[in-house]
Structure formats: C-alpha cells, structure tokens
Amino acid sequence: MEPFIRHDQVIFIEKQMKQIIDGQQKHLPKSVMRALTEEAHFKIEAQFIRLTEEQRQLIDFTRYENKEMYLEQIKACELDFPVVTLAELKKLLPKYKKLKVPEELAANTKRSYLGFDDVRSHQKVIVAEIAGELCAIAGHFIDKHQKNICAFCGCTNEVVYFTAKTHARDPKNPDYYKTISHLICKDSEVCNAHLTDLTKLHDYMEEVLKK
Ligand SMILES: [Zn+2]
C-alpha cells in the first residue's frame, strides 16, 4: 500500500496501543477494556481526514490479534520526511549560508520535523513541511540544563530556551523585530518521538515566518 501515515500519527497510534497493552497486562475488567478499545479505535480514525476502505482496514487494530504486527503494518505505510539538501537550506535560510544537516540526522527520514544545532552560527534550525511546503526557521537558544515541558510535544524532556525573530516590529520597541521564545526539547529527535500533534509546532513556525 502507498504510504499515507504521517510520523506524528504513527507515534499517536503507538501511544494508543501502549494503553491497550497496559490494560491487558493489568487484567482490567472486560467492560473497561471494551471501552478503552472503542475509544482508541475512534481516536485513531479521527486522526485521518479521508481514508479509502483499504486504509480504514489497515488502521483498524481490532482486526489484528498481534499488536506488534499491527504496528509493523502501520510503520510500513509511514510517509517519508523530505530529504533536506544543502541548496534547499540555503534557499530557506539565506542568512545562514553554510548550514549543513548533520550526517547522523540526514539518514533518518521518519520524523515530523528536522531540528539541529549549527555550531558555527550558534543557532538551532527547525525545518518542517507545512501544507506540503518545506519551511525553515533559525533562532538562538540557551541550554537550560534541566527538564521541563516542551512547547511543541508537551512532554517533559531536557529543554532549551529557543528564541526566533519574526518579521513584525516589536510594539514596545519599534526599532527591533518582535521575537517569540519557547522552551523546546533540546534534542529534536527526542521531540519527534513524542510529538503526536503538529499544531503547536506549525503555529509557531507560521508566526515566525509571517510577513
Ligand atoms: Zn518536544
């Protein structure tokens, strides 16, 4: 089958399956398990705007005795994150001419967004696909050396304080551009492993990029 599942949806489905498996291991009463199963089934379907009959069957975990096998099927239909070339980065972030995607990240195509630190410019770079278009922002960051809630994935992980400049003037100081800061996961691959909803990431990027 053609890939049709985004990375955040794969993570979402994995989390739902974990709850079901946990429930089975705890030997929850049948009625509770039935309610859990129905809810998970509903939530997974609600992740998708449109499904063909074949796709609907594939995401229906109740058809699989073995949940591991189900997750394998899901992963086999995961969409790839686009390969971000040097030329593309130059086009997206013309101010930072020598940006390079670290090799260890370039090989992985299963993610919701690409995030890496550029040592040369002391910037964190974030690349995501919004409405089918590749977008990128760069901003400086302060390592907080502590765990806190990430503004993108909502999970408690090692965070940095990330600040990006928008194209809007700062109302308090019109000589400067407004900046927006958030605590976000220090390691974007960790963030990707928790991200089940792209809204906050995309809203933030759109606000930074708005002209
Ligand atoms: Zn995160």
TrEMBL record:
<keyword id="KW-0648">Protein biosynthesis</keyword>
<dbReference type="InterPro" id="IPR038344">
    <property type="entry name" value="EF-G_N_sf"/>
</dbReference>
<protein>
    <submittedName>
        <fullName>Elongation factor G-binding protein</fullName>
    </submittedName>
</protein>
<keyword id="KW-0251">Elongation factor</keyword>
<dbReference type="GO" id="GO:0003746">
    <property type="term" value="F:translation elongation factor activity"/>
</dbReference>
